[in-house]
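Notes from hallway chat w/ T.B., transcribed later so I don't forget. T.B. wanted the structure written out for a chain they're using in a teaching module, and asked if we could keep both sequence and structure tokens in one place. Agreed to drop them here.
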Amino acid sequence: MPRAAEDVINQAIKENRVPEFILYEMLIAFVFVGIGIIVWSFASSHAWVAVAGAALDGLAWPAYKETKRVRQENLMLRLLEIPLSKARTADEAATMLTERFASLYKPEAERAVRRRGSGQ
């Protein structure tokens, strides 16, 4: 018996939780250890060691970006539930999903740029 779309989506989101939490832990670790190294280096008059702390803080950005990407994918999966719940037939669901995927997974260059506060 085929599983419901909601069950499949929930399972996919559940599987994304572990990497998401690992990325959060990495982000927190990089930031706190980096700040700790910076503080220690200035307290012990080894200002040049602060470069290592700054580099470690710089490693937090890739973890942040990846965490943001995982969260966006989870949101997109949740948004797929809407067209699936409105579809009455398999063909309708397939058409809606094709349209939704085309709009959600466009390359960045093709997406319309939305400017804050412009109402666009």
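Follow-up for T.B.: The mean pLDDT is 78. Might be a good example for the class.
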